[in-house]
Amino acid sequence: MQLPDPETLLAEITAKVQAQLQPNTALVGIHSGGVWLMNRILDSIKQDIPHGMLDAAFYRDDYAQRGLKTEPKPSNIAFDVTDKHIILIDDIFYTGRTTRAAMNELFDYGRPASIQLAVLINRGGGELPITPDIVGAEILLKPNQNLQLSQDTKGKLHLTLEASDA
Amino acid sequence: MLNPQLDADGKLKHLLTIEGLPKKILTQILDTAETFVGVAERDIKKVPLLRGKTVCNIFFENSTRTRTTFEIAAKRLSADVINLNVNTSSQSKGETILDTVDNLIAMHADMFVVRHGQSGAVHFIAQHVPDNISVINAGDGRHAHPTQGLLDVFTVRRYKPDMHNLRVALVGDVLHSRVARSEIHALTTLGVPEVRVIAPKTLLPAGVEKLGVQVFHDMKAGLKDADVVMMLRLQNERMSGALLPSAQEYFKTFGLTQEKLSYAKPDAIVMHPGPMNRGVEIDSSVADGSQSVILPQVTYGIAVRMAVMAILGGGA
Q1: How far apart are alpha carbons A109 and A78 in whole angstroms?
Q2: Helices in chain A by DSSP H: which ranges?
């Protein structure tokens, strides 16, 4: 399968995020891919926008089955969430469970005015009534396929697709 | 031999002692604790990880700070917490430890936090409980106090991140101290190159060098160029009797004053596991001084205990 260039998709979602900016907008990236994307978006739009990052590991619904992931990253929301229009940013949208966890964590910081979701790729397979508002590309994948975003040492983004037999 | 603290996949199952734990697991606990520090600074200081779980604090020996911070940690993870002060309950009526534990298992407890005056008692309980229950040692006899050791190295790492380039001095009653043993194991496992103990000969266990520490009996030599000074509590019952002439004389020789602290590096941090005996092992001006990180230790203790419980509580 020919994968799209993530740098092109990033430019597209950057433009869409920019179009949504209001005086009270804040950006929140979900570790790790969402944080890379958020930092790139902030670099391009060159505006001083409140921003933060979430891990959501403590809010996941698979903790009882899988335990805590071994390398959780600190959440850091240094601005007041209350009454902000928040754009959550993630790399790949799949079941919607990470988004659910991130929204629950966000509400423990305060009561936002609204939350939108921006993703680089929607791979289909949603299991919850959550759909991204800003999407770079839709690529329907099978459950055994694993699409991963990575960032090289120069900050360039790459997509890799792996299939498992399981 | 299988490490009794790890499951077949090498994951942490109980936390009984730091001795023998792989560096990877210590680092995982410290990194996870780092993510919990921020939770305490939010409006809602709770995460839902242990929702619906019951944590039992079973203290066969008194404690205020440790029990309270374990309780706060469990509650911030949304667990239900039951505190048992066994001194004042059924043990005084003649119940055995295992009967006490079996009764709590029958009440569907999910995790035990245990302190006991006898070394090895918590290990004994961990061997007895069914597979789905985790046991955390909150101090057993003179043996180990692993969460204290972890919160101490967590505090060191926060102030002195380059653990591979540090000189740490432990001062005081190493002989009776489970805290000292856990600190030494944690520091050496994490690669601290120079760990010193400073104490009178009567307060050092035989063969303490085998733990990988350098021994000093003099504060000036022992504290020289130290980055971290960890004070140990001198228990009241040791202040008189055969081991020490008097509390005053101990303070004169081994009590940490500003003057003695000046032998250490100018940016050295001073730690104490509490409760402190001001004017015995530490002078008030040092305990309340700018180099003291004694109260941050308490704050970080909650994050570290949350991390241990979060790692033990998840996964099938």
Answers
A1: 10
A2: 6-20, 33-45, 63-66, 97-107
- The series of mean pLDDT values per 10 residues for chain A, 166 residues long, is 93 97 96 96 95 93 87 90 97 97 95 97 96 97 94 94 80
User: What is the extent of the structural domain holding A121?
Assistant: 6-163
Tell which residue, B178, B146, B140, B144, has the closest CA to residue B30.
B146
* Cβ <8 Å between A64 and B311: no
Q: What pLDDT digit, counting tens, does each position of B243-280 carry?
A: 888 888 999 999 999 999 999 999 999 999 999 999 99
Q: Residue A36 falls within a domain, yes or no?
A: yes
* Binary contact (A108, B44; C-beta < 8 A): yes
Any domain includes A1: no
Q: Counting beta carbons within 10 angstroms of the beta carbon of residue B70, is it exposed (0 to 12), middle (13 to 18) or buried (19 or more)?
A: buried
For residue A75, give the amino acid letter. Answer: S
B316 has pLDDT over 60: no
What's the per-residue H, E or C state across B3-31? CCCECCCCCECCECCCCCCCHHHHHHHHH
ipTM of model: 0.84
Nearest chain A alpha carbon to B36: A74
Q: Taking CB atoms and an 8 Å limit, are B48 and A72 in contact across chains?
A: no
The token duo for B2 is 């299988």
Angstroms from B33 CA to nearest CA on chain A: 9
Chain A residues with at least one Cβ partner in B under 8 Å: 55, 57-59, 63-68, 70-77, 104-105, 108-110
**Is 90 exceeded by the pLDDT of residue B239?**
no
Mutation to test the B interface, candidates A31, A32, A68, A104, most B Cβ within 10 Å: A68
Number of domain units in chain A: 1
Structural domain contains residue A86? yes
- Domain with residue A157: its CATH number is 3.40.50.2020
Residue positions counted in chain B: 316
Phi-psi region of A134 (alpha: psi -120 to 50; beta: other; left: phi over 0): beta
- Tell me the pLDDT tens digit for each residue of A33-72: 999 999 999 999 999 999 999 999 999 999 988 888 878 8
Q: Give domain status of residue A41, yes or no.
A: yes
B32:A65 CB<8 A = no
Helix (H, G, I), strand (E, B) or coil at A87: strand
